[in-house]
Amino acid sequence: MSGPEHGVPPTRRRAWAVVGALTTATAVLALTAGVAAVGSLRPPTAPRDVPLLAVDVPAAVTELVCPGTVHLATEPEEGSDAAYDPAFDPTPVASRSALSLLSVSPDGTSGAAVTRLGALDGADGDPVVTLAPEGRAAGATVDGLSGGLVLRADAAGEVPAWVAGATGVRTTDGDLRGLVAASCGRAAAEVWLVGGSTALGSSGRLVLVNPGRTAATVSLELWGPSGPVELAGAPQYLVPAGEERVVLLEGIAAEQERVVVHVTAAGGRVGAYLQDSALRGLVPAGTDDVVAGAAPAPQQVVPGVAVTASSADGADVALLRLLAPGSQGGTAAITVLGPEGPVDLPGAAELELVAGEVLDVPLGGLPPGYYTLVVDADVAVVAGAMITRGEGVGLAPDLAAAAGDVPLDRAWAPATVLGVAGPLALPPGVSGEVVVTAVPSADLDGSAPATLELVGPDGVLGTTTLRVAPGSTSVHPLTALTGASDAAVGLVLRSTDPRLTWAVVLTESLPDGDVVALLAPVPPAEVRPSVAVRAR
User: How many CB atoms lie within 10 A of CB 139?
Assistant: First the structure.
């Protein structure tokens, strides 16, 4: 018999069989890998074009945080919070405070309720006051403020409610002498406060308010005349849900002649405002609340800058405050829009902005009147303005010195966004002027139309039709709107023109000089009936 297996020992035959099996398995694996490799070289499958879906979103509840009354800090305590000694109060008269409230709707009526800070549920959540307008608008007043209040209103159908509040505080004597007014503002994750000082004799009382249900961690950044300021202690503060926390800026950033504060919050949204007050020896030099202004942008608009007669080098004149908070400096030009159009401000055609350095631009020499300031820069900036009142304001330095120590008052005007229509609450018993400006636009010609409604506790008291020429400022005394401003609790500006900006300048005469305050409207919530969602 013949054959390959004959004559071969059994052990060798088994070895050859194993080798053959391994060779076959290796070949199969190699072939499989090759097929996989070839498959991997195929082009990827084109992504599916999944359409966006429009999902209806109900209009959100409107929530505004209203500042409390003014306070005099006697000492900073450890942790940079403010402490007050009730046995020591150099204010010889009590401050009179009130909160005015306004509820309007662009297309109907809507109710609103005011609760104390932290009172969200249960018996403690019973409203301090409610507004239930039967017509187009209604208002109310809360006297004797202490801590902060929260104004909440449900949407009117598919449109966010138009509600507004404003705190007004009068102090006729003492360290806090002056007229303070501040609109209730929205809680936000980011707030810019342009104004204030921590120089000798000045105090910056920063109030952080958390109206939500979760604690918020707040971080502070501060800039001064020489750039970013290194804060003493930790730059972060925990603000519990439903509470407020007070930080004295002079305790964490002393001797800063002019400041800008940036507040950012994580874990929740916060409201923030800065009580700015000053003394010159024993003489009060003004008190006001610095409220949130527009975020950094190449153009900023500051309405309601009301100046009195002054010389170019006058004492305590109004000023414009600017900051380029980024890493790059640049240049800026200031346009001053008055009742007759643009007004020349010497030296303001081109200003150098050093990155991170706070700059004050005096407005001395402007003719007395009401203006809106427009800043155009080649970098993002923030802006605000301070207006002043008093017997020595605007005098030449030698005349101001001869006038002696006279009290002053101040008011801070925030930068606002254009095209803000809606309500603005007014403290009770005030007098002053409504200042409306149409900022020129390359896209629009002709006058900007608008209507002003003066609102009382029981509804609209009167309506005034406006047509504001581009580049001009229209001024309307409150008493001229109806002849009965004492009954007014607020105003409503109705317009769809995106060029308009407005504010209200409040004034009062005291035996030792005039006092002043300013209110700017808070933009209504954005109307978003639906959002685009991509399904996967």
Answer: 26
Q: Token digits for 177? A: 């002498």
Nearest CA to 382 out of 413, 415, 352 is that of: 415
- pLDDT of 218-233, one tens digit each? 999 999 999 999 999 8
Tokens of 410: 């101040």
The confidence score (pLDDT) of residue 138 equals: 77
Beta strands of 106-153 (E only): which ranges? 112-116, 129-131, 137-143, 149-153
Alpha carbons 491 and 487: distance in angstroms, whole number: 12
Q: Which two tokens stand for residue 58?
A: 């109900």
Residues 6+ apart with CB under 8 A from 376: 298, 299, 332, 333, 335
DSSP 341-398: EEE--TT-SSEEE-TT--EEEE-TTPPSEEEEEEEEEEEEEEEEEEEEEETTTT--HH
CB atoms within 10 A of CB 92: 11
Instruction: Supply the Cα-derived Rg of the chain in whole angstroms.
Output: 32
Which three-class secondary structure string do you get for 395-421? CCHHHHHHCCCCCEEEEEEECECCCCC
Which pLDDT score is estimated for 27?
42
Contact 71, 275 (CB under 8 A): yes
Residues near 36 by beta carbon (within 8 Å), at least 6 away in sequence:
none
Residue 134 carries which DSSP code? S
Q: Domain extents for the chain?
A: 62-530
| Closest among 416, 496, 495, 524 to 60, alpha carbons compared | 524
Q: State which amino acid sits at residue 109.
A: T
Residue pair 328/379 in contact (Cβ under 8 Å)? The answer is yes
CB 253 within 8 A of CB 259: yes
Residue 477 β-bridge partners: 433
Kindly report the pTM of this predicted structure: 0.85
Residue 24: strand, helix, or coil: helix
Ranges of beta strands (E only) in 267-368 are 271-280, 283-290, 297-307, 319-323, 330-338, 341-343, 351-353, 359-362
Mean pLDDT of 192-197: 98
The token pair at 432 is: 């002053």
How far CA 25 is from CA of 4, 11, 14, 19, 22, in Å, comes to 23, 22, 17, 10, 5
Query: What confidence category does residue 113 fall into, taking pLDDT thresholds of 50, 70 and 90?
Result: confident
Please spell the DSSP secondary structure of 34-49, one letter per residue: HHHHHHHTSPPPPPP-
Residue environment code for 68-81, b if the CB has 16+ CB neighbours within 10 A, otherwise e: bbbbbbeebeeebe
CA dist 300 → 297, 322, 498 (Å): 7, 10, 14
d(CA 249, CA 229) in angstroms, rounded, equals 11
Helix or strand or coil: residue 529?
coil
Q: Sign of torsion, CA 349 352 358 364?
A: negative
Q: Which two tokens stand for residue 508?
A: 């009062």
Question: What is the residue whose two structure tokens read 């002696």?
Answer: 404
**Statement: residue 49 has pLDDT above 50:** yes
